[in-house]
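ok so I'm stuck.
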Amino acid sequence: MLIFGHPLAKNLNFNFIEKIENLQNDQISCFFYDEKIIQKAKNENLDFAIFIQNKNEIFLSNAFEAKFLIFKDEKLAKFASKVAEFYLFDSKILMMVENFDDLEKAYDLRVDGVILKDFIKNY
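replied:
not stuck anymore, here's the structure
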């Protein structure tokens, strides 16, 4: 299981962005699904994560090479994990959590990992 945000874990730099000009190559840019930002990130070979809000975004974000798909909604995360297993997604499915008290829940959802909400800068 991937665990992002724990002080003992080696972590990547996740940063929430709202504007296309905030994309940077020294971070994982996290944003809500936006094809203009996705296109720019792909053109510049940047790693990015999408906050998923519906089922279509799961399929599209993986197809457009998002490194991570981030979920707040547990039902949507569970659906995504089933889809990812069937289609062998390259994108990793992350459940956003408030703390690390119940990691077994992430296992039950069959997600690839968890990310602490407070770990995403500017979110």
